[in-house]
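Q: Sequence in, structure out?
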Amino acid sequence: MKEKIYLITTPLKETFKKENKNIFLHPWIEENKIKFFDYPNNNQMINNNNYCLNLYEKILPEISTILNKIHKSDFNLEFWKFFLGPWLKIFISILNDRWKRIENFNNNNFYSNTYAISYKSDDLAENSHESFMQAVKTDYWNSIIYNKILKFTNACDIEEVPYKKNNSQLKNSKFDIKNLIKKRQNYLFINTYLSPIEEISINLKLKQFPILRKKFIELPQFNYIAEIRNEPVKQIENYEFEKFLFLNIFKYMPRVFLEGFFEIDKVIDSEKFPKNPKGIFCGIIPENSHVLKYLAMQKIRKTKIITVQMGGDSSYYDFHRSQKQEISNTFLSWCKTRTNKNIRNLGYIKKKICL
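A: Exactly. Output:
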């Protein structure tokens, strides 16, 4: 009888027993020190990124059609691209990364068993895009996705162990007295990274009450409904990773796109965003789901949206930079490269410019 060798995918103590013979997916799990060679090299990252982007473009129309069917709506592809797109791109990329890590590890290592923590179906569906972005950083989330991959590929025997998820991060929206003084504006400024004095000055010149929008209303917790998450996604190519992805898109899709899709309209209204703004200026696009929906609605209404490249935005492909370029009519860039007609190259600004 062969000796059991347990694969340890995350530092969760429930999945690790010292008396077993263990092998670690990442060396830093055992040594508590990140080794950078554990991560893909630049060429691999570029290839994986291009594959994920191409896959995203292929499946977005299908996912959008399904969501319109669920909500009995007829939002166009452009709306879903800006509302759902940021989450879907990241979800595909993260799943592909975890899949590749297991695949590469299997090429050079042997193991026979692993421990899988128990979970409920509604644990997979985070409440919003922003809570999903926090969840993917946790050992709990990654432990589940790794074990799903191992089970799907039949890589080893899986032994379930009990685990209780900590839901202390779940919050209900709170009343904010500042909402009482918010007024509708003709021009909306979001995360400008201008100084308060500069932003107030611009608002006064536009003859509107200054509102420095740095934080947004927290969303209420949406009730999980399993029945609306059973829609099948049509297979595009006969790749194992894509089969795995399509099985899990709606299981992991944050509730704000399904159960809370219409409820967040109340939150958008509470933000007192202008219903028909003459223009929107955005420095960093927020991860807040209701803000993304508002921007998506304004995009399809042909509202003029100006975004700006921040100091840390790469001149090469960068997700947030790409998102800004796609949603804006004008993208203000400090780079010399110009790949799109909506990009306005300003260089390094030393004086104020009127737009």
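Confidence is low (pLDDT under 50) at residues 32-36, 169-175.
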